[in-house]
Amino acid sequence: MTWHFTEDSAAFRTAAAEHLAADPARNTAVLTLMDRADRLGWWAEPDGRVTGVLAESPPRVPAFGAMPVEAARALVFPAGTEPTELRGETAAVEAYAEASGRPWRPTVRMRLFRLGRLIPPDPAPAGRARVADAADVPLAAAWARDFARDIGEDPEQDFTGPVGERISEGRLLLWESPDGRPVSMAAVSRTIEGQARVHLVYTPPADRGRGHAAGVTAAVGRAALDSGAGQVLLFTDLGNPTSNALYRRLGYRPVTDHLGVAFAPVTV
Fold it and tell me: Residue 266 has what pLDDT?
């Protein structure tokens, strides 16, 4: 049993195709990152079967896909490239962190949900969903910065490009109040291996508590299903009971728990 690494996404797809396709929900982060990852890895059993995968995005932040805990324990990064952070299913992340011998701390506890039968919000919030357009990029980028700040990520990065890409591909929806004012947003990833993931669900503080997030989340989930996604997924922060309850009401059901950790710097 051993880990293999590559920077070539085509080689990774060839090696790990069966594993990725067997459970795209549990491999959603790797599927989303693999075409722009700095490093990709797969764990091969003695008979050649791939049973674990990871994708590493800059700066040294691997995302684990589905993998056995023994694969996580056996994972060793080359000296000088050890991760600064890590995310993945809780058991695998804890196994790697403990085996690494490095000081670490949890940063976020998440739950992956999968949409069953979509249940529209009842009562329906006032207003309507619409697909964002180029004129909405500045507003959506500002909201993305606020969203990053709310979840403890870096709000200083430039979100114009990522948000613009989602808007140009029709993957970001806004909820408008009856007077036409945008009051909430949600985006969805590209559909890969039949799965799409809802993200960037954000409502400014002044407009919360009116059901706008429920409206736009239901709308973007419906759009993903209509575009051909077989599975619609999303992650929630377990520290936010409001959002967890909302997504359950819309028909999302738990798949597995995830953990994010940060490591102390490696000293030599």
Answer: 65
Dihedral in degrees, nearest 10, Cα atoms 149, 153, 154, 155: -20
3-state secondary structure 183-209: EEEEEECCCECCEEEEEEEECCHHHCC
Region 96-104: mean pLDDT is: 96
266 within 8 A of 102, measured Cβ to Cβ? yes
**Stated pTM of the model:** 0.91
User: Which residues are CB-contacts of 203 (< 8 A; sequence separation ≥ 6)?
Assistant: 183, 184, 185, 212, 213
Q: Quick one: how far is CA 9 from the chain centroid?
A: 19
Task: Please report, rounded to a whole number, the percentage of residues in the chain having pLDDT higher than 90.
Answer: 89
Which helix (H) or strand (E) segment is 241 a member of?
helix 241-249
End-to-end Cα separation, the chain, in angstroms: 29
**Helix, strand, or coil (residue 84):** coil
- Tokens encoding 263: 């490591």
Residue 14 Cα to chain centre, angstroms: 23
Mean pLDDT confidence for 34-58: 94
12: which 2 tokens? 């990774």
| Pair 232, 114: CB distance under 8 Å | yes
d(CA 43, CA 131): 40
Give the tokens for residue 94: 């804890």
Q: What is the distance between the alpha carbons of residues 178 and 212, in angstroms, rounded to a whole number? A: 11
pLDDT band at 152; cut points 50, 70, 90: confident
Residues 37 and 23: beta-carbon distance below 8 Å: no
Q: What is the DSSP string of 30-58?
A: HHHHTTT-SEEEEEE-TTS-EEEEEEEET
Please name the amino acid found at residue 79. A
